[in-house]
Task: structure prediction
Amino acid sequence: MPSIEPSSHFTQLRDWSERKHQVLKDYLPAFCRVLSRRAETIWYVDGYAGAGIYRDPNNPDAPGHPGSPVLAAKIIQTLPYPIRCINVEGDQENFGSLQRETAHFANVESIHGDFNAVIDQILSRVAEMPAFFFLDPFGTKDLPMEGLVDKIALRTKPTDILLRYATETVRRVAAAYEKDAKRGSAHGRNLDKWFRGQDWRTIIEQHTGDERDEALIRYYLKQLVTISNSRMRFACAYPIRSTEGLTKYHLVFATGDRLGMKVMSDILYKAEAKYVEEHAAYIEQKEAGKLKGQTMFDFANPHTEPSAADQLTAKIAKIEQSILDQRQHRTHWEFDDLRCTLIEHGWFARFSEKEFRDACKGLYAKGQIERVSAGKGWNKGTVFILR
Ligand SMILES: C[S@@+](CC[C@H](N)C(=O)[O-])C[C@H]1O[C@@H](n2cnc3c(N)ncnc32)[C@H](O)[C@@H]1O
Result:
């Protein structure tokens, strides 16, 4: 049985849900664009689709805010390629709302049921075509890696997965496993399936607090890319936080395609820059509220943060060092290949193409890069040697 949350979730769109939706809105068109030349039809599968709309019951005439299946349905209408959406929703009331909100869109269908029960049917339906799976349930029970995510990862056609890693639930279930003598083993089995393995048990013996969360996420990502015969080569996690700074959950992205990884890295890099700004504005406002009524002498602590320019210089130096570290593997590189290699080795969502280019130019100016390609530009196709 799916664990169904009350429809009250859909009465208010929270700031962190907007951040999640933005990632979907940015990535889905990019996925379709990349695959449009290679496929007859592209599929978007929303496994835990929800009500389709976030609407305040006290204001039923207001338009409300679209949920993921409606955002996807709107996006595919604007793209000049054949794309189809399948939504699955387990809750009767949410499903009714989903049907109403999506009925007028072409190429969108919805199934009322447990995603676990209909996955085989969906997989055989979309087997011959590229598919993007958005999997966004509330907890861990409905989205086990064992028996669900692993099946999706075994597809042979291009497949990307964006899923909710329920950070708070994983933390809570792990703590219940440790403390609840009566139901501990049931919690343990739940996590065995979530992680498709049992090494999380050792991890929770060795770590506590934030470190435990991080180690468990790393384990999850490792499990995701080591499913045997799977096409998923790359997986990463990005925290979805409230404006106040609380981590609500992580979005995990998995792909078998380097281009998908690069595109998502750029999308999340921008998402992070926006989040940092919004969070800083919130803190500033909060501090301004606190400071009201204080005397000048309260400002005794000078502002010690390095300037933005100094921070950027330090960052470019770090990218330069990461580039030079690649000499241990080989010295001949193409610009985009090296950028992807750095993304795979710690720079995912942490630099822009421009920053990477500036690092290449910096090394060139210092004589540590020698160009092989003619011309002056630093772009896809530029070939060089690391000295
Ligand atoms: C977080 S909400 C989805 C929100 C939606 N993705 C959005 O962004 O607008 C999760 C939804 O999954 C549904 N659900 C939970 N377990 C399910 C399952 N096993 N199969 C299908 N739907 C399920 C819940 O009823 C709920 O509506």
